[in-house]
């Protein structure tokens, strides 16, 4: 789907780097850091602000800038928020109903999660930008073209959803929930959300709506699930 040879090579190399480096961070480095540091805020800042931005965000932004003319949406437009995009933020209401409604059905009430820590507020804000920059801003943006047919767009969105799902595997393994998330089919939520954020990118032609919705969803999950 990628017509530019250099962009194809960059796509492959960054994919190998991202999944390899992040697996090493989650499975090898973070257990050491968590064992050495007791401060939850410090751990969050090290993982999600320092390491994740070095491994994920910075390389993605550099690639977006380098291949801006070869992507569906150039870097300047990608990082510019347009007023007409505001209406898509109404999707946040549907996300709230989905998360909070599910909690109420399961627990017959609504209360702050016992595992919630204020540091999760920082995580929600950082993760939304980082993950959308990488997966929608670079990966999806690199595989879409102006003249793509609808089937080609659906294939690109589906591939992106699988890639987005796979990047969650290391943290699921380290947390001991990998098998549970697969057997319970809760992983389907990740795929649906990825498709939703991809839709926002294609319709709004910037990453900000997807970033805001992503952060909002994560915050709801951290607080109530």
Order of helices and strands: HHHHHHHHHH
Largest sheet: none
What does the overall shape look like? globular
CA-based gyration radius: 18 Å
- How many helices? The count is 10
The percentage of residues in β strands lies in under 5%
Helical proportion, percent range: over 70%
Which secondary-structure class do the elements indicate? mainly alpha
Cα distance spanning the termini? 38 Å
Mean pLDDT: 94
Query: How many structurally independent domains?
Result: 1
- How many β-strand runs? 0
Instruction: Give the uncertain stretches in residue-range form.
Output: none
Describe this structure in words.
By secondary structure, this protein is mostly helical. The chain has one domain. Helix content is 76%, strand content 0%. The protein is built from 10 helices and no strands. Helix 2 packs parallel to helix 5 (119-143) and helix 4 (91-107) packs parallel to helix 10. The longest helix is centred in the N-terminal third of the chain and has 32 residues, at 5-36. It is globular.
């Amino acid at each position: 789907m990628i017509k530019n040879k250099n962009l194809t090579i960059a796509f492959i190399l960054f994919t190998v780097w991202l999944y390899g480096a992040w697996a090493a961070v989650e499975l090898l480095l973070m257990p050491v850091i968590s064992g050495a540091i007791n401060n939850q805020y410090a751990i969050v800042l090290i993982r999600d602000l320092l390491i994740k931005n070095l491994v994920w965000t910075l390389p993605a932004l550099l690639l977006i800038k380098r291949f801006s003319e070869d992507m569906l949406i150039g870097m300047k437009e990608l990082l510019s928020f347009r007023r007409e995009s505001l209406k898509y933020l109404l999707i946040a209401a549907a996300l709230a109903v989905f998360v909070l409604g599910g909690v109420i059905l399961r627990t017959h009430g609504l209360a702050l999660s016992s595992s919630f820590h204020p540091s999760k507020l920082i995580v929600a804000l950082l993760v939304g930008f980082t993950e959308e920059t990488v997966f929608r801003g670079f990966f999806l943006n690199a595989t879409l073209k102006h003249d793509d047919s609808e089937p080609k767009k659906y294939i690109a969105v589906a591939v992106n959803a699988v890639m987005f799902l796979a990047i969650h595997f290391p943290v699921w393994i380290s947390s001991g929930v990998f098998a549970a998330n697969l057997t319970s089919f809760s992983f389907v939520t990740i795929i649906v959300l990825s498709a939703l954020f991809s839709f926002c990118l294609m319709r709004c032609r910037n990453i900000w709506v997807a970033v805001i919705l992503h952060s909002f969803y994560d915050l709801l999950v951290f607080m109530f699930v």
